[in-house]
Amino acid sequence: MRLSLAHAPVRLALWLPWATVTVASLLLSDNLTGFHGDESGGTHRVSSGLMQCGEYSNEVMPNGQCRLMATLPQLAEQRCPDMFRCTDEVSYWLRENEERKQQVQDLKETISELQEELRSHRHRIKVLEMQHQARTGWNASLEQRFHTLEESYTEATALLQVHGSLIYDMQRQVRNLSMVVERVRRNPGCMINIVRTSPLLNAHEVLHPEVQHIRNCPIDCASLYYSGVHRSGVFTIVPSREGTPLEVYCDMETEGGGWTVIQRRQDGKVNFNRKWNEYKNGFGDLHTEFWLGNDHIHDLSSQGAYSLRIDLEDWNGKHKHAYYESFSTEDEEHQYRLHVTGFSGTVEDSFAWYHDKHSFSTPDTGNICAEISHGGWWYNQCFFTNLNGVYYKGGRYSAKSKNLLGPDGIVWYTWKDSDYYSLKKVSMMIRPRTFRPRLSP
């Protein structure tokens, strides 16, 4: 390409790579007379010996390119020297520059595509992370469920063991019942299905008064013990003298069991200030406080040789007992006269030595001791033992504060050395003198 100049001055600026300018400068120097320049690539001017064709300069820019400045003045019909003979080289480098620019643009587009693909990959990674977290949570949920199932299995195993133990116990009880049924089948002497109404039973336990009785029934709690009953509770017996079924409370635990309880005091809920007929037939509740009845005590103690045990408890929780090897009472015609001997135990005797061979009295019989003592007992003048007296909570009491004529509490004199200390709990029970625990019938 040639550069023609006419009319007005023209300023031309080119930015070229430094190598390109160097070649151009060398070429220009061959065509310009009076050329002056410095090796450092400073300002170059055309010699004044030529027509004024202008001037040019070049300098290296910070980015490594060469800045070429040419000022061409207005000329009439003259031409400036052909300053750019190396047009092909300049064009080559310009084309190279354009290709590089296109490459840079292509690189920018490629980078943009790569960035977009990178964003896509990051999005996929985020989705995969979320899926991983979801799977992790699901696995944790499964692990928790598995742990819960393990706990449930452990509990179920424990319950199965308990149920197995219960089933085993029930099977054992069924076997015991089967043995009892078989024993009854082989010896069906006692077949009591319905018993008479008893004043010692509460309203829920009262049965119809019809009686069905056949021989060989248990005559006391010892007989029940020998037949296989080894738990305490209320049972039906048929004393041999009367031949009438009777509900009694059996103590199958104290000193080997087999005891028929004839009296119990424990909370003062039952009033023992009763008349003769009430003491004759019995009163109270077999599960709490009661007097079995003088007729029944006579029937029981007269069908063999019986012993008596009396258990005592004071308000400090101390326990003592008295044992009498021989015990019986006479019938009503003889006022249920007492026969009791052969003392032993953990408390001094206050019963046999003073009350033996004395008749039973109640407040309505005219006995002054019974009236003063407000109870029924085998009174002498009046008592050293009064187990059917008034129940005083706390133990000690005074006749003056109660406006009494004399002591009337639940007294065992030789334990507390006082007529004015009322015991907290007492019980009287009998069994055959020849009883031996855990023997077969």
Helix-strand blueprint:
Elements: E1 10-17, H1 18-31, E2 43-45, E3 55-60, E4 65-72, H2 87-186, H3 221-226, E5 233-237, E6 246-251, E7 259-265, H4 276-281, E8 283-284, E9 290-291, H5 294-301, E10 306-313, E11 319-329, E12 338-345, H6 352-355, H7 368-373, E13 385-386, H8 399-402, E14 411-412, H9 413-416, E15 425-432
Antiparallel strand pairs: 1-4, 2-3, 3-4, 5-6, 6-7, 7-9, 7-15, 8-9, 10-11, 10-15, 11-12, 13-14
Signal peptide: 1-24
GO biological process, one term: blood coagulation, common pathway
Protein name: Fibrinogen C-terminal domain-containing protein
Give an overview of the whole structure.
The protein is α+β, with helices and mostly antiparallel strands and 441 residues long. The chain contains nine helices and 15 strands. It has helices at residues 18-31, 87-186, 221-226, 276-281, 294-301, 352-355, 368-373, 399-402, 413-416, and strands at residues 10-17, 43-45, 55-60, 65-72, 233-237, 246-251, 259-265, 283-284, 290-291, 306-313, 319-329, 338-345, 385-386, 411-412, 425-432. The strands form three sheets. Strands 5, 6, 7, 8, 9, 10, 11, 12 and 15 form a nine-stranded antiparallel beta sheet that branches. Strand 6 and strand 7 form a beta hairpin. The model is unreliable at 1-12, 16-52, 82-86, 193-197 and 203-214 (pLDDT under 50). Its main location: secreted. It comes from Alosa alosa.
